[in-house]
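Encode chain A's predicted structure.
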Amino acid sequence: MAKNGEQGLHGVPACSGCGLVVPGGTGGCRAMFDELAVRQWDRPVAYRIRRMMVDTYSLQHPDEFCASAKSLAAHLTGLCAALEHESHPTILRVLLHWLDSGPTLVKPVVPSARGAITLAEVFSAAKGEAIVLAADRWARATWKAYAPLHALARRWVGEALAIPSRPPRRRP
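Encoded structure for chain A:
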């Protein structure tokens, strides 16, 4: 894997977010992610796994998907929840409620190296359990790269969990 923004073998560009050497560079990486999403229409994965993949991709491509403190908080806490609170049945709703409550957030500096595994591993996985396992490896590698922000992510998740839950909305 090339460093972000560098050329790979034979002049093939690297993605500026994750460093994946792929035709089209950053655009080619995004096209792979979009194609993976389309594939899941025929072979769906659980929402929790899909959300983990979105958070992982977003954290590896923060210039586009984590531009604001709120968007970084959403993806960082989402990945933290996926890996450290997976048994909590409503954690994603709790995090959304917290973000909607308007917490005061200051955006930290994101790591320049964002994980040794890229989307390519999930993209090349056959289907079913292989995709889930590849997505988990990818997420854990990205989470490891974000180690300097773990304490902040855990604090934000703790703040979210401390907010009293609101009753579900009733539809008219």
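The longest helix spans residues 25-42.
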